[in-house]
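Support reply, case 0932

Customer input (verbatim):
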Amino acid sequence: MHQSSIIILGIESSCDDTAAAIISDGKVLANIIANQEVHKKYGGVVPELASRAHQQNIVPVVDATLKRAGVNKNDITAIAFTNGPGLLGSLLVGSSFAKTLSIGLNIPAIAVNHMQGHILAHFIQELNEEKEIPEFPFLCLTVSGGHTQIVRVDDFFKMEVIGETIDDAAGEAFDKVAKMLQLPYPGGPLVDKYAKEGNPNRFSFPHPKVEGVNFSFSGLKTSILYFLQKELKTNPDFINENIKDICAGVQKTIVDILIEKLVKAVNETNIKQIAIAGGVSANSGLRTALQSLTQEDIRVFIPKFEYCTDNAAMIAITGYYNYIKNQDFSKNSIPNARMKL
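Our regenerated output:
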């Protein structure tokens, strides 16, 4: 390892994935995620169990990441960690570990905003391939279980939320609908899987009327619930018999709402470069819909699957730009469950 390299260890523990990554001069050397299976039987993430699992996972995950990257802990330049938003207990495990290790190694600990990490995932480079990265300014649609936002990105550290959900996030809508359809947790990816084989135009659901480039998904969930209740009264097997078409209709509706607002934001800002980020950006319907926008001289950036969901490479790359732009490295940052972008 060339000693003048800037080597960042990234640690992500905002929810139920314990993740660590090593980035050297902007390129990923290792990116490891330990998923927590314990939540499946509860149908959702249990915060107390999540923080306990992080405590068990964090040392082995960091150790495995260093070995895979071929990096000695004394080669690390700085440690970047997720400081929020997220589950407080989970954030505390990652931030305490990162700060303690940084004191032990006498290197900076860099607090990273999880949502900023999702956006900057677009700047992660692989070792053997140069990929196209967005130019500033660009618009980023950030969609996850907890967030749905359109962010104007003028610089690595200058971002402004220009539209957001006024109630529920798109990812939460996918998961709640999956629950109504009695699909196991996490249900979002299963809705996507069934939707691929269904007819998206057989069942249609209303689009909410919301000002500007803001979103709303709570009314959609209610209308799907009433629709299912009505159909189940006449045919108790309605869901089983029509699962693929229902999922396709739901997915098409959510994706159409997202794309509609994104196009509106492009027209209002005249920014023609758009990116997606966050867990829902792994959704195949959303990826396909975005790619079909390119004919209108819009440039689209879609991250690799492994950088869509929570991962530590996105935290490490944010730490890397933080380090080279010499932002504030404060040891007294306090994890914030509701941190804003």
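We compared this against your earlier run and they match. Two observations from our side: The mean pLDDT is 92. The chain has two domains: 7-130+308-324, 138-305. Please reopen the case if you see a mismatch on your end.
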